[in-house]
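[step 3/7] fold_predict: job queued, chain A
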Amino acid sequence: MGTTTSTTNITFTPTPASLQARRLVASCEAIGVCCAPVAVPRAAFGGAAEGTPALRYRLIATKPLFIYEALRASRLPIAWCAPAASAQAHRARRSRPRAPPRRRARRRLDVDLEFHAYPSLFDGSAWGPSETRDPGLGRDVLLWNWQGNLSWFGGRRLKAASGVAYFNKTEAAERLLLAWAQAMAYPPNSDAPDDQALDLLVNNDGWIDRAAYGWLPAAYLRMSPHHSAVAPVIDHDRGAPVSGRGRNSPKEPVLPPHALPVPPPIDHSEL
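[step 4/7] structure written:
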């Protein structure tokens, strides 16, 4: 694919040939952005059925590890464009032989994002100096933060919407992804929302000071009706209203236990 971007945009979906997945790829090609959607095998996670909470929660828990492995294998930074639950009507079984067919909404995972403009903030040169990085090196991680503009927190608190996230090709970004993947692999978090687990790491486990962050503006995950007047760079579900009903697990994540600290190396010059 001929592109001008310095970032690879990735996602996974159980329905790679769906209309929404094709829209994402077409929008990437239209503006010169490299997109790499990956199909999830039907037999993954024990063959959990499409549209069931079991498949949704396992995919969500696997997301940080997927991004981590993709970043390690790539020569470029990685931008994640998440699949989300969408309503899909399907025909229910007849409860009686003569009962009329009924239709009900079933939640399924699909890619519901589209690019409308080149994501210039994914270029390292777009960001100024950071307190934790040398000038010109960009940021380690770019996240969409509901509380990024609240002056009370001074830019040091995360309430993420993990539909879009950027990870630079840096050690700090890889370390954060690994910690996130380990948190989601912790059995009590198997059904917990991944973005809330990331919030917990950044806000309560010291990761705010272990990487250089940038908070993406509303245009990079334009959601209606919150941002109806915002011209999108990345649009969610073609401007359809966002509703969290039935999407997120009510389970709250917890921090996994820490391993014992590694002792400092011995200074043999003093022996």
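[step 5/7] annotate
Residues 30 and 168 are 24 Å apart (CA to CA).
The beta strands are 8-13, 34-39, 78-81, 83-91, 103-111, 113-115, 141-145, 160-167, 213-216, 234-236.
exit 0
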